[in-house]
Write a structure and sequence with these properties.
Layout lengths: L5 H14 L9 E31 L8 E3 L2 H17 L2 H11 L11 E17 L8 E3 L8 E3 L8 E3 L25 E3 L8 E3 L8 E3 L8 E18 L7 H10 L10 E4 L12 E17 L2 E8 L4 E3 L4 H5 L1 H11 L10 H11 L5 H7 L6 H43 L8 H34 L12 H25 L2
Parallel strand pairs: 2-3
Antiparallel strand pairs: 1-10, 1-12, 3-10, 4-9, 5-8, 6-7, 11-12, 12-13, 13-14
The chain binds zinc ion (4 copies).
Length: 500
C-alpha cells in the first residue's frame, strides 16, 4: 500500500499524546492496520423560487429614493402580483441563485429547507394616495367656529360695547353726580374690554385659522404604502446513493452533521454538467471529498477498532482507555478525598483536574474539554468530585481551628453589644438598627475569614498554581456560620423576653 495515511498518523499521535504522562507509555498504543482513503459523497441540491412581500403603510410621502412610485394602491397590488408571476416563470432566478451559491464555501451542501437571498434581488415599490378622510386637504373646518376662526364675545354678546364699568350704566360721574360719567361721557356704554370693541374672540381650538389638522392622516394629507419584495431560492439538499461507502463513514458524517461538512471537514465541489445529459437548471450536483480511516489499534495490549473522519481528523469509537490507565492515581485520589493520605498528583490528568479545582471549575465538563476522548464522563465526574473533597481535606485542620475561633469571637461580639452599656448612649432606633445588622456583619466576617484561610492553606501547598479568589469553606464552615447565627438568635430572644 503506497497510499498516504495522513489522518491515521494524526489520530495515532493524538492518542499517544493523551496517554503521555497519564500512567500509560505512548508506545503502549500501537497501530495494527489502517484502511484510509478519501471518499466521495455526492448530493443533489434542489432550488425552488421563493418570493416574499412585506408591506407597510404610513402617513406622508415616501422618503425613499430611486424606487418605483405608483399612483394608486390598486396599481401597487397589481405590480406585486405581476412581479410574483414573472419571477416564478422566468428562470433567471436559478442562474442568480447558482451565482450566489458559488460565493459560499459549500455551494449549499447539506442545506435542507433553508432560504437563499441576495441583496440585488430586493425591490421596493411605493404608492401614495390622498387621505380618504380629508381628501388630501390635510385639514377639516374647525367644529367650534365652523371655519370662521372667531367666536362671538360672550361678555358683550357681539355688540362690542358693555355697560359702563365706572358708572355702572347710569351715566353719572360717581364723584360728582351732577356731571356726566368721564368714561362713557354719559352714554352709559363703554367699549368692551374683552374683545377690544370687535365683538368677537379668537377661536381657541383652531387659534383663528378656522381649520384643524385631519386626525386620520395626522395632517399629512396623503398616505403611503411600501412593498418590499425579496426574491430568492429555497434550498433542499439530499445525499445521493451511499452504497459502497464504509458504514463507519456514514455514521461519522451524521455525527458531524451534513451541513457542517463544508466547515473544514470535507472539500465540497460542483460536479460539472455532463453534456450528454443536461441537468435541470434548478438542480445542482455536488460532491464532498472526505478522508476517512478504519483503524485497528492495540492499547495497552487490548485490541480496538476506531475511526477517524474528516480533514480535521475527528476521532470516533475511542475506548475509555484513560479510565483504566489512571486506575492507581484514581484510587489514591479517593483516599486523599477521605483524608486518609495527603493529596499528591503524579499524572497529567490529575494535575489538570487539580488546576481546574483550584480555579473553582469543578464541573466535570471542564476536564472533558481537555480529554474529549479516552476519558469517560463518569470517571471525569468521579475525579472532579474527589479532587474537590481532597482539597478540602487538605485544609480541614486549619478550618476546624478557625471555626472554633470564629464561634468564640462571634459570641464575644454579640455579648458585648447585648450585655455591655456600649449601646446605652445611643437612641433606641440606632441601637435596634445596629443589633439587626450585627448577625449579617458577623456571619459575613466569619465566612471571609474561613474562605481566606482555606485559600491561604492551598496557596502554601500549591504555590505555583493560580487560585480562585474565594475557596469553598466546606461543611464545617457552613455549620459554623449556622451556629453563629443560632447563637445570635438565642441571645436576642434571651435579652428581649427574659430581660436579663
Ligand atoms: Zn386626512
Ligand atoms: Zn375655530
Ligand atoms: Zn366684547
Ligand atoms: Zn359711564
Amino acid at each position: 500500500m503506497t497510499e498516504q495515511k495522513t489522518i491515521t498518523t494524526t489520530a495515532l499521535s493524538r492518542l499517544q499524546a493523551l496517554a503521555q504522562g497519564n500512567g500509560l507509555a505512548p508506545e503502549a498504543i500501537k497501530l495494527v492496520e489502517s484502511k484510509e482513503a478519501t471518499y466521495t459523497l455526492t448530493g443533489v441540491l434542489n432550488m425552488t423560487p421563493h418570493i416574499e412581500v412585506r408591506t407597510n403603510a404610513y402617513n406622508g410621502r415616501s422618503k425613499l429614493k430611486g424606487v418605483q412610485v405608483l399612483s394608486t394602491f390598486a396599481a401597487l397590488n397589481e405590480e406585486i402580483t405581476k412581479a410574483q408571476q414573472a419571477f416564478e416563470k422566468e428562470d433567471s432566478w436559478a442562474k442568480e441563485a447558482v451565482a450566489e451559491l458559488k460565493k459560499t464555501k459549500g455551494y449549499g451542501w447539506g442545506q435542507s429547507d433553508s432560504l437563499l437571498t441576495w441583496s440585488d434581488k430586493k425591490t421596493t415599490l411605493v404608492a401614495t394616495e390622498n387621505c380618504p378622510t380629508c381628501n388630501g386637504t390635510a385639514q377639516h373646518p374647525c367644529p367650534d367656529c365652523q371655519g370662521i376662526g372667531f367666536t362671538t364675545c360672550p361678555h358683550c354678546e357681539g355688540r362690542g360695547q358693555e355697560l359702563c364699568y365706572l358708572c355702572g350704566g347710569n351715566g353719572q360721574d360717581p364723584a360728582n353726580p351732577a356731571k356726566p360719567c368721564p368714561t362713557c361721557n354719559g352714554t352709559r356704554y363703554a367699549p368692551c374690554r374683552h374683545c377690544n370693541q370687535t365683538g368677537r374672540l379668537l377661536c381657541p381650538p383652531c387659534q383663528g385659522k378656522g381649520f384643524i389638522p385631519c386626525e386620520s392622516c395626522q395632517g399629512a394629507g396623503v398616505i403611503t404604502r411600501e412593498a418590499h419584495i425579496t426574491k430568492g431560492a429555497r434550498l433542499s439538499f439530499s445525499l445521493s446513493a451511499t452504497s459502497g461507502l464504509p458504514s463507519g463513514l456514514l455514521r461519522a458524517v451524521s455525527r458531524l452533521g451534513e451541513a457542517n461538512l463544508p466547515k473544514g471537514h470535507a472539500d465540497i465541489a460542483l460536479v460539472p454538467e455532463d453534456p450528454e445529459k443536461p441537468q435541470k437548471k434548478t438542480t445542482l450536483l455536488l460532491e464532498a471529498k472526505i478522508p476517512y480511516a478504519d483503524i485497528k489499534i492495540v492499547i495497552n495490549g487490548k485490541g480496538a477498532i476506531i475511526a477517524c473522519a474528516g480533514k480535521m481528523g475527528r476521532l470516533l469509537g475511542i475506548p475509555a482507555f484513560l479510565d483504566s490507565a489512571l486506575k492507581e492515581p484514581r484510587r489514591e485520589l479517593a483516599r486523599a478525598a477521605h483524608g486518609a493520605i495527603p493529596l499528591k498528583v503524579t499524572t497529567r490528568a490529575m494535575q489538570d483536574a487539580l488546576k481546574l479545582a483550584l480555579e473553582g471549575k469543578t464541573n466535570p465538563n471542564a476536564l472533558r474539554r481537555l480529554y474529549p476522548v479516552g476519558l469517560s464522563g463518569d470517571v471525569a465526574k468521579e475525579i472532579m468530585d474527589h479532587m474537590e473533597l481532597a482539597l478540602r481535606a487538605q485544609t480541614r485542620k486549619l478550618r476546624l481551628i478557625l471555626a472554633a475561633f470564629c464561634l468564640m469571637a462571634s459570641g464575644g461580639v454579640f455579648a458585648l453589644f447585648f450585655f455591655s452599656p456600649l449601646l446605652t448612649p445611643l437612641s433606641i432606633k440606632t441601637a435596634t438598627l445596629i443589633k439587626a445588622a450585627l448577625p449579617v456583619l458577623v456571619v459575613g466576617a466569619d465566612w471571609f475569614v474561613l474562605s481566606q484561610a482555606a485559600r491561604w492553606a492551598l496557596k502554601r501547598k500549591f504555590p505555583t498554581l493560580p487560585l480562585a479568589a474565594t475557596q469553598s469553606i466546606g461543611r464545617t464552615g457552613y455549620a459554623t456560620l449556622g451556629l453563629v447565627f443560632a447563637l445570635y438568635v438565642v441571645l436576642f430572644l434571651a435579652v428581649t423576653f427574659l430581660r436579663f
